[in-house]
Structure formats: C-alpha cells, structure tokens
Design a protein that fits this description.
With 774 residues, the protein is of the alpha/beta class. The protein has 28 helices and 21 strands. Strands 1-5-7-8-9-10-11 form a 7-stranded parallel sheet. Strands 12-17-18-19-20-21 form a 6-stranded parallel sheet. It has a two-stranded antiparallel ribbon with strand order 2-3. α12 links the parallel β10 and β11. The protein is globular. The N terminus is likely disordered. Bound molecules: glutamine and zinc ion. The site of glutamine (GLN) has 13 residues, from loops.
Length: 774
C-alpha cells in the first residue's frame, strides 16, 4: 500500500477497490478443506482455520497490489445468498433443527440436503455461470438478525490494519431473488416482506458500525433488470429507511451486470452516501444516464470500469476517459471492477501453456486488481504518473488488434460471405420429414438418448493416464473404442431405435471442442466457482475460430460401423460454446458465434458425408444467455438462432437434425426454439410431468419433440408404468407420429446399473404404447 494517498486525503482522492475476490485459493484449497470436512477428514476447526487463512492471504494480496479499501463478507463456504439467508434468519423450517444443533452442518444441509431433507433450490446468479441458493420465504417468515459472520470477517480485516468495507446482498435484491417456500401460495411475493426485513438490515448495519465499519456496501444487482413501478417504489422505500437510520455506517448501493435504467434516479436520489455502477458492456449506458440525473453531488461513486466477468485486459485510455467524465459527476470517484471478481479465475500468470502472444491480452483477478490500482493512481495523480503502464497497455491492445490470431483472413472472408440462405434448409419440414422417415424407417414413438452414457472411473482414469503420458494416444483411443462398443451393444440389446456413441471421450461438452478448434484456448488453472465446491474451467474464445480437422467423425463412424441402426452424431451448438466460455470482447458476440457456427457446420457436413443420418446439436445454454433486459433480447435471439441455423442448415433433407435443451421453463423463448428449425427437439420434462409438451402444443410447434420421461438428476429408476403415464401425457399434447421417447438429459453423471434398468423401462413403455396405438 506504498503509494496510496494518506488517510487524511482519502476522502477526496480516488482509490482502488473491488466488491469480492475468488474464494477458492491458488490451489483450490477451500474446495479441498470443505470436501474434506464433508468426508470427515477435516475437523470443523481445521476448516475454519483454512478459510481464515485464505481470507487473510486474499486481503494481503489485495492490499499489496495497492487496493485502498478491501471488501469483507464476500467470502463464503458455499454461497453468498445462502449466507444472507443465515444473516437474516430465513432458515427453512425443515432445516431449523439441524442449524440449531450445529450451525455449520445445518448450513451445509441447507446447501446440499441430507438423507432426510431437501436442500434449497439452486439457480443461476443473473446471467453468470455462478449458482446461488434460492431463499424460501412465506407470509409466516420471521426474520432475525445474525451479523456474526459479517462482524467476524470485518474484524479479521481490520486486525490486519486494512481499511475494509463489508459487502452484503441488499434487501431488495435478496427479496427479488427469493421464492415462495414449499407449501406457500405460489403467488406469494417475497417483496411484500420488505418492511419486516428492513429492521433486520438496520440491526446488522448497527452491528457493523459498532465493529468499526465506516462504509457498508449493499449489492442490488436485481435493480439492473426490468422492474415494475411497485418494485422501484419498494427500492426507494428501502433506501429511504436505511438512509434515515440514526446509528449507521455510510451506505453504498452497488449494481452490476447491466445499466440501472429506471432504478438509477431512485438510488441516486436516496439518502445514502454512494453508488456503485457498472460501466462495462451494456452498463456503459450508465454514464449518460448518470449525467442525465445530474450526477451524485456530495456522494461517492464507485466506477466499475474493469470488466469483472471477462478475462481480457482493460483499455486504460477508454477507462480513464470514462473516469475523467465521472469526476465531474460525483464528489468522490473510486475505481473498481464492474462486479465481484468471483466470476474470473485467479491468476493469468499460472498458465504456462498459453501462447505468450495471447497471454499478454489476459487479465484474471490478480491482474485486474493491478489494473484497478493503476487506473486509480492515474486518476489521482494524472496520466503522467502511469505513463509506463499506459504505454504497455497500448502496446498489448495493439498487438491484439493486429494479431493473425484475432484476424484470420480466411475465417473473416468466409464469415463476411454468409447470407440468410446459408441458414435455411433446402426444403421445408413437411418434405424433410417424409424423406427422413423413408431413410430411417423408425417405429412410432422412436426411442433415443441425449448423448452421453456413464462417465466411469475407468474412463476418467484413461484420460488421466493419457495426460500423464502413461498411455499413448493409440492406447487411449483403444480404451475409448472399447467403451463405445460396449455402449452400442447395450443399446442394441435394450432395443433403442436411434443410438449414440456415448461420448466416453469427452471430458466436457464445451472444452472437448474448444481443444480442437484454432483460436480457442483451454486453461490449466482457470477455475471459476459454479456452485459450492464445484469449479469449472471455461475455455477462452481468443481469436478467429477455425477447424483444422474433423473433431467427432471418427467416433460416430466407429460406432456406426458396429450397428445397422442409425447412430446419432453429437455436437455442442455455437450458443452454448459461447455461453460456457470467456468470449472475446473486441467484436460483437454475434460475430464470434458465426465463426464457431461455420466451424461446426463443417463438422456437420463431414458427419453427413460419413453416412450419419441423424445429427444432434445441443443448445442447453440458449435460454440462460438471454440478456437481463427484455429490450436486449430480440437482438440476442436473432443472432443465436442464426448461429444454430448456420451450423445445421447445410445438410440434405433426409438428414435429421436434432437439438437438445435441458430446462423445463422456456415459455419466453418458444418462438426462438421454433425458429431453430430443428427436425426434433428433446427437452427436460420428467419433473414437471410433461408440462413442456402442452406448452409446445399451445405454441403450435410443428415438428417432432421428445419431452424427457426419465429424470436423470437422481439415481432413482422410474418404473415402466410411470414412464407410460408420462408418455400418455405427452401423447395428449403431441401426436404419436411426432413424439419421441427419451430421458431428460445425458447420462454421464449416472451409474451403469440404474441407467440400464431405466432405459429398459423406457423402451418397454414405448413398446406398450405402440401396441396400444396399433
Ligand atoms: N449430449 C450431451 C450429453 O448427453 C448433452 C448435455 C447437456 O445438454 N447438458 O451429455
Ligand atoms: Zn440436457
């Protein structure tokens, strides 16, 4: 913290800060400690010590990097929304006893469930790939303040001599992200509990003030979504009341992931002391909006100018220009990432495999922290004080803009030449389906699976052996071929109609393709929290994308050589490839999607040429990537459907295109699903008792569909009567000649015994109904 302004001048001089930092530690120590605790190998004390050590080392790193104020309370054993439920005492009735007996075990029971009680539901945190535990509230919910965790963590940071700012999920966002508890009227609106919740926040704020907090940050990302006037009024009331508290720390309301829009004047006028705004991506609109409301006179602004959810270096000149404008709009301007750095990996220098030409374009959490401090210094002391950093940044950006990696003329020419016709099948569905029926000769209610079969320890061990050099590529391929042969033999025996090769060779449905495409990078240590102790390594779309060689043809062809039944080729679609990767920020995502689509289109063409009659292109992420604001959705859905169609449209009429999506709620995108023009779609439906079948019918969906009849999320085996009953529901909505019979999703997380039994039942149910129909 060498060249930071001294405390006396701090009120005016711009400082650097962040809202949160990756929790897991350099070597995912937190994951190991927590999972060790679950297995009884680590004591509660051991876990607490490991966690405290990680927090300390994070704060030290941040302070050494030059952060003027560190965040506290952003750490979590599992999830910050769950921590908030604990903080406000919203413990579901079914978990209360466990929490009373042992708060730590009760906490994990809420997160993961136990033999006897179900966990809280988990869902995506806005449009990120982080998942939070959904608060369960009802008219009888009684809140009670428990500020212990927040107070303790603030104390730890203050004890290190740091200036610290507790970060809490704000009350409005907390309620807007909650849902009615089981048994409560589904129409119940948690926001109606605001008046009961505010006194609890008041108590926590008073506790934090007493513990030494000068500032407290309340995160309100839910206010960047479209909000009703009633919801905006609730936000206004919340901050009027919190602002009016007598004994409170100074309050800052932070927003991120998009522009605040109508909520900006609400928060700007609230009697609180500051605002955090996102100035990256669609958040850039905050700049003009802030000027339009007359800025934040007398208040502190935290300017999120460094993208907190992507991994590219910042454009210093652009950020300094934004910051310069903002100086005129607030009393004090601090520099930050746009959101918590939770959403990016820890350290780009831990990636020795990445081409050094690309490495200089990357900024993970550590590098972003350094960028933020440079910008704060530039803002405080003038650009001359950061001349060297500015020059280096300019050179790095230029090297990216002019690199053959980001500018591949062949890829660009091809993408520029794409026309609407490239996204259109040569014949409409009625003619295609006739040709497909003739070629495939399937029974009514054809049976199939979604692609993957169990990923056994044996398969994972083979991959580890290949990586470690204990077996060579030929040895590995032999093992995978043996697995494919076993999977084909099983499906023939089970009597399935359209077979799959089973995806034994795929570590992950995105990474597998990323590793084979030029311009796409995998990382070694780029772990990002998905939920709890589950971390993923999203690949990086770094350059122009091309496909040097076929990626899947050998596996599908090998599988097809073993059977006379059709084997379905299996690809991950362009939208999902983008959604589960870090996407380049130097061109619109639509352009990147088009490049990926063209590479996949070649794969589709090669599969078809190799004799594949059925090709599935999975798009489980189509809905989750939907922009937060409704106004931005049509443009997204347009490029997303175009990319899918570009991937799939080149095939002959008698080649059948399938797609797959995992979710059950798709009412808001059913038109987009229709626009994909896939011949067959499979969807998750077992848990919702085939509700999607009815929704497809209501929409008038004209093609074939396979609403799932086997819930693959649990080891439970559905019996034949259960599957038959679901199929009857399906038949009530979709005619027999357009209804497919399949599980909800892939089987990779299942074991073999339950998979075999369940698929036997699925085939038996289809046969029974065929007999009835005949
Ligand atoms: N084909 C993939 C599988 O079966 C689809 C997975 C998914 O939709 N998430 O595993
Ligand atoms: Zn799925």
């Amino acid at each position: 913290m060498t060249d930071q302004p001294t405390a006396g001048r701090a009120a005016a001089a711009p400082r650097a800060t962040v809202y949160g930092y990756p929790r897991q530690g350099q070597h995912r120590e937190l994951k190991k400690a927590i999972e060790g605790y679950w297995k009884g190998r680590v004591s509660a004390e051991g876990l607490r010590e490991a966690a405290a050590g990680l927090r300390r080392s994070n704060w030290r790193q941040l302070a050494e990097a030059g952060l003027g104020e560190v965040p506290t309370g952003d750490f979590s054993y599992y999830d910050h929304m769950l921590d908030t439920s604990v903080m406000v005492g919203a413990i579901p009735a079914r978990h209360r006893e466990a929490v009373q007996n042992d708060p730590l075990d009760g906490y994990f029971a809420m997160a993961r469930g136990t033999q006897d009680v179900a966990p809280l539901e988990m869902t995506k945190w806005f449009d990120t790939n982080y998942h939070y535990l959904v608060p369960e509230l009802g008219p009888d919910t009684v809140f009670a303040a428990d500020s212990a965790k927040q107070v303790a963590e603030l104390g730890e940071a203050l004890a290190l001599g740091l200036d610290a700012r507790p970060v809490l999920v704000g009350p409005v966002t907390y309620l807007l992200l909650a849902k009615p508890a089981p048994g409560v009227d589904p129409g119940f609106e948690p926001l109606t509990l605001l008046d009961r919740l505010l006194p609890v926040y008041a108590e926590v704020l008073a506790d934090l003030r007493a513990a030494g907090a000068g500032w407290v940050q309340l995160d309100e990302p839910a206010l960047v979504q479209d909000r009703t006037p009633a919801e905006l009024n609730a936000a206004a009331r919340a901050y009027r009341e919190l602002g009016a508290l007598a004994d409170r720390p100074r309050l800052l309301a932070a927003s991120y992931f998009d522009r605040l829009g109508e909520a900006l004047p609400v928060l700007a006028k609230a009697p609180i002391d500051g605002l955090g705004l996102d100035f990256t991506g669609p958040g850039a609109a905050n700049l003009a909006d802030l000027a339009a409301v007359g800025g934040l006179p007398g208040k502190r602004l935290i300017a999120g100018v460094v993208d907190g959810r992507n991994i590219w270096i910042n454009d210093f000149e652009k950020s300094l220009s934004t910051l310069g404008t903002l100086l005129g709009l607030a009393d004090r301007v601090d520099v930050a990432a746009s959101c918590s750095l939770l959403h990016v990996p820890l350290d780009a220098t831990a990636e020795p495999d990445i081409d050094p030409r690309i490495a200089r374009w990357l900024a993970f959490a550590r590098q972003k922290t350094a960028e933020i401090t440079v910008l704060a210094r530039g803002l405080a002391r003038g650009t001359a004080s950061i001349a060297a950093e500015l020059a280096a940044n300019r050179a790095d950006l230029a090297s990216r803009a002019n690199s053959p990696i980001t500018r591949d003329p062949a890829v660009r020419e091809r993408a520029a030449a794409v026309t609407d016709a490239d996204g259109a099948r040569s014949q409409p569905y009625p003619q295609r389906t006739a040709a497909q029926r003739e070629r495939l000769d399937l029974p009514p209610l054809p049976t199939t699976t979604i692609g993957s079969f169990p990923q056994t320890d044996d398969l994972r061990a083979a991959r580890a052996a290949l990586r470690a050099g204990r077996i060579d590529a030929a040895g590995y391929e032999q093992r995978m071929e043996a697995a494919v042969a076993e999977i084909i033999a099983f499906q023939e025996e089970a009597g399935l109609d359209v077979l799959v090769h089973g995806e034994p060779e795929r570590n992950d449905m995105v990474q597998y393709f990323a590793e084979q495409l030029t311009g796409y990078l995998a990382t070694r240590q780029g772990w990002v929290q998905s939920y709890g102790t589950r971390y993923v390594r999203p690949p990086i779309l770094a350059g122009d994308i091309s496909r040097p060689a076929p990626m899947t043809v050998r596996w599908t062809s090998y599988a097809q050589s073993l059977t006379s039944r059709p084997v379905k080729g299996m690809l991950t679609g362009p939208v999902t490839m983008l959604a589960w990767s870090f996407v380049r920020d130097d061109q619109p995502p639509a352009d990147t999607a088009r490049q990926v689509a063209l590479a996949l289109r070649d794969e589709v063409t090669d599969l078809e040429a190799a004799g594949t009659a059925v090709i599935q292109v999975d798009e489980p992420a189509l809905r989750e990537t939907l922009p937060l604001r409704a106004a931005d959705r049509p443009a997204y859905l347009h490029w997303a459907t175009q990319a899918f169609r570009l991937t799939t449209a080149a095939v002959r009429p008698d080649t059948q295109i399938h797609t797959h999506m995992c979710y059950a709620e798709f009412g808001d995108i059913v038109q987009a699903i229709d626009d994909l023009d896939a011949d067959v779609i499979s969807l998750e439906a077992a848990r919702s008792h085939m509700q999607v079948a009815g929704e497809l019918a209501d929409h008038g969906y004209p093609r074939e569909a396979g609403p799932g009849v086997y819930d693959i999320h649990s080891p439970r085996v559905p019996d034949t009567t259960e599957v038959t009953a679901l199929l009857r529901k399906g038949l009530a909505a979709i005619p027999a000649d357009r209804l497919w019979v399949n599980p909800d999703c892939g089987l990779k997380t299942r074991g073999w015994p339950e998979t075999k039994e369940s698929l036997d039942h699925l085939v038996a149910a289809a046969r029974q109904l065929r007999a009835e129909l005949a």
